[in-house]
Amino acid sequence: MPDSSATPHTGIGAAVKRVEDYRFLTGRGRYVDDMNRPGQLYACFVRSPHAHAKIRSVNTKMAAKMPGVAAIYTGADLAAEKVGSLICGWTVTDKHGQPHKSPPHPPLAHDKVRYVGDHVAVVLAESALAAKEAAEKVEVAYEELPAIVDPAAALASKAPQLHSEAPGNLCYDWELGDKAAVEAAFKNAHHVTRLDLINNRLIPNAMEPRAAIGEYDAGSDSYTVYSTSQNPHVLRLILSAFVLGIPEHKLRVVAPDVGGGFGSKIFCYAEETVCLWASKKTNRPVKWTAERSESFLSDAHGRDHVTHAEVAMDKNGKFLAMRIETVANLGAYLSTFASCVPTYLYGTLLAGQYTTPAIHVNVKASFTNTAPVDAYRGAGRPEATYVVERLVEAAAREMKLDPAEIRRRNFVQPDQFPYQTPVALVYDSGNYEHSLNAALKLADYAGFAKRKAEAAQRGKRRGIGFSAYIEACGLAPSAVVGSLGAGVGLWESGLIRFNPTGSVTVFTGTHSHGQGHETTFAQLVSDRLGVPMDKVEVVHGDTNRIPFGMGTYGSRSIAVGGSALQVAADKIIAKGKKIAAHLMEAAEQDIHYQNGIFKVAGTDKSKTMGEIAFAAYVPHNYPAGLEPGLEESGFYDPPNFTFPSGVHIAEVELDPESGEVEVVKWTAVDDFGNVINPMIVEGQVHGGIAQGIGQALLEHGVYDKDTGQLVTGSYMDYTMPRADDLPSFTVGLTHTPCPHNPLGVKGCGEAGAIAAPAALMNAITDALGVLHMDMPATPERVWQITRRQAAGLAS
Amino acid sequence: MYNFHYQRAQSIGDAEAALKAGNVKLLAGGMTLIPVLKQRLASPDALVDLAGLKDLKGIVSDGSGVTIGAMTPHAVVAASADVRNAIPALAALAESIGDPQVRNRGTLGGSLANNDPAADYPAAVLGLNAVIHTNRRQIKADDYFKGLFETALAEDEIITKVSFPKPQKAGYAKFAHPASRYAMVGVFVAQTASGMRVAVTGAAPGVFRQKDMEKALTTNFSPDAVAAIQQSPQGLNSDLHGSADYRAHLVTVMAKRAVAAAR
């Protein structure tokens, strides 16, 4: 770790309070819906009430006569103007070497609708209310078709067909790993543990609903879209190069304050596309803000896997091989990165923290009459961790091994790094047993038996569960993801601009929508350049201000975006040395930089960073041939993923009479490498665990299997975790620095959501004394098990 | 939300007159009505807001019980020393409704007029054998509730207050619906001057009395007395979070807890 003594209260490693919170907590944040453009129209989308239907006709005559209506557009209008299909930016190659099936995804449907909430028409009016009133008058004649919502049933021979381009509703049949080696290992196994698992569909529910304003400026023939985006340049690239054909330099994307994304705001959706297109048609800005019910229907959902998993072991519980078969639900259309989530972000993680020598995974991805499914906090890695850690726990029970012990016997050891897994990844670093031991101690594992006995006296069943997770983040080495089908590179950019008075403006290509980048990145730059933190401003989210960047997802911002800033900071220091050498009449190689001070070695001569910046902008006495100014950009393409890991231990008490589950204790020990701001990291861990507990205990996106209606379309039926569902979290950190990025950082945003579901389900099934139950462990589901047990029936 | 006219009633008479216009709704706390309007599931021509009617607010206590104005918010009932002294189970029930925002807006009269099958107050009103006072008459609890969102109220009838007789003992236990936090099953038990009463909300399309449990508790007021009594799942509600079987089972579990909590 580089030294950081100059700014002990704000430097790297200091728990600085988030500078952005003042504006958020006092209502001064500025979100898309806070913005209003002169003369704007309001858009209301006419959405399909059917899961699957042919559109016979769309009659807009009545609606057009409603007060305040400026224009109405249908799918046919967009098709007539050759508006492009929404795209999937990652092409997965199937096991036969063929590209996945990517059927058209028109922003407004014109032949068929394929899920409840699918977009049929848009009404533009002088007010949001007028648009809504008129939208109700748009008459759409549908011919209903049978719907299919279950991912596995969609692959059956007689299932209703969604797309002629994807026979059998199959998007791809993909595999990874050495199948023959796996088969051989299973033949010689002492014991095989098997599980059938469902990873429940989740609905993201960012606090701020999606919103967009499209604006066309006829004078300059240029466009602006204000959007709730996690990655404004990626949105610009997609809208420009693929969907609307607007020249990239004529399109500005602004993603201002954004109230949470969790992945759901990575994607290019129909709504911002249509608002932007319609702004040119009407020559007026067009604004849309989702109602919460629209968010439920049309934000990309997460997870929704059906999996059969097997692990083969020797007599000591050493894993010999794993065999995983998964069907993944992709919804009605391929969302922007949907295809890579159940493949390269899932199959590659199935080695977990273990030395399992042979792994084979097969994933069939299906289209169904449901909202598109794409990345949601963790994206593939929670699904992988759930499979591995449930399987390992079940194996421990069948082998009668302590769950900590079976993990110990199979961990990749510290001296094995870099470690090549049988599923493509090379783990760079880690110390898994160290994290396990720390977690066991923090959780007082030794005292569990006593706590369990005490709970039994109160009529409660107490259980404990582990999750030793690994994730691959810091997305990602561009050449690697390119070879796997990604349509983009996943480097990151940063730019550091000194102002003549010594303050600094930092531009980052990442985007903060809750992560606290304005604090963390300011800390980083302040520490590196010796500028007080309050003199550092972080700018993000506007393609006209920041360098081209890839945005924020996959816990990549500090590892890739932070590293890009480090590159820029190094260039600033290098240039500063030249200026300092000139000013102090010394040789450049004699200038030593530390904590914002340039010193001539062996003398007491020095210049501050502020003096250097001033000299760079007022270059009266300046090195000949050196460019004036002090501004440097850095681009960083990571050589590998980073691999955060850790151990979470959940403890529950359940009431066998009512089925209620209480999470009574939670211990997390995470290895994020070096940490810039431990308070922000802890907050990220808390939020992730809350979402993971939500998945395991409460949340479930349910479609009616016959009608395809979304049953959980509001908070009356979709259970979000609340504060009183959660215990206090005991969070510990270990630090194995990432060896391949300049900061030694790994990323922390998704870890909690990745680790938590398996830990909690392991604890609940431990308390119940069953091998498995599916998420969410609702009171009724738990009671159904305890009832059968009470009746003496097998579970 | 569709457009509607808004009128703030200055008196009960004012409200009565306004109701005669037809497609008019009374607005109490609005905790159900406003969401229904926002979802465009109702389109009244006018709302008549009762918020300004001071006569409908407040709590009066005498030795025989408490009388609570129809426009009294749940939070006021929960915090009332009179209610806590006379019928602690009623104060606790009010404290358990929704969240602080709901408790400070939602009212007793609004809850009873709406008669949501998963609301808490109907269990207390039926369990305590309360009397509902309207602008026209007094209605006994046993005559008031008519099933799913249905009551004995006439179209232009307005609840003014509710009298709760003081029981010897009463208790309430609720199993909250995981998502909505309404009662999936709520059981109110009370030893009253008119006998043992057990009222169940949330489980069925409307609040109802569990007579088998009343009988059992009359001879032995203890959790054990109801432990073996099974509610029939016939006719009970069933949804994603609780089947009729589960709700039936929870009636017994909540009855035990209510008896244990009774004081």
List keywords for this structure.
heterodimer; A: 795 residues; alpha+beta; seven-stranded mixed beta sheet; five-stranded mixed beta sheet; 19 helices; 28 strands; B: 263 residues; four-stranded antiparallel beta sheet; 34% helix
Break the fold down into its secondary structure elements and pairings:
The complex is a heterodimer of chains A (795) and B (263).
Chain A: H1 21-25, E1 41-47, E2 53-59, H2 61-64, E3 69-74, H3 75-80, E4 112-113, E5 119-125, H4 128-135, E6 139-144, E7 170-177, H5 179-187, E8 191-199, E9 211-217, E10 222-227, H6 232-243, E11 251-254, H7 270-282, E12 286-289, H8 292-298, E13 305-313, E14 319-329, E15 358-366, H9 381-399, H10 403-410, E16 419-420, E17 426-427, H11 432-442, H12 448-457, E18 461-470, H13 478-483, E19 492-498, E20 504-508, H14 517-529, E21 536-539, H15 557-583, E22 591-594, E23 597-600, E24 606-608, H16 609-617, E25 631-636, E26 645-654, E27 661-671, H17 678-698, E28 729-734, H18 751-768, H19 779-790
Parallel strand pairs in A: 1-12, 10-11, 14-15, 20-21, 27-28
Antiparallel strand pairs in A: 1-5, 2-4, 2-6, 3-5, 7-15, 8-13, 9-10, 9-12, 13-14, 16-17, 18-26, 19-20, 19-25, 22-23, 23-24, 26-27
Helix pairs in contact in A: 9-10, 9-18, 14-15, 17-18
Chain B: E1 5-8, H1 12-19, E2 24-27, H2 33-38, E3 46-49, E4 59-62, E5 65-69, H3 74-79, H4 81-86, H5 88-95, H6 100-105, H7 108-114, H8 121-127, E6 131-134, E7 138-140, H9 141-144, E8 159-165, E9 169-176, E10 183-192, E11 195-201, E12 208-209, H10 211-219, H11 223-227, H12 244-261
Parallel strand pairs in B: 1-3, 2-3
Antiparallel strand pairs in B: 4-5, 5-8, 6-7, 6-8, 9-10, 10-11, 11-12
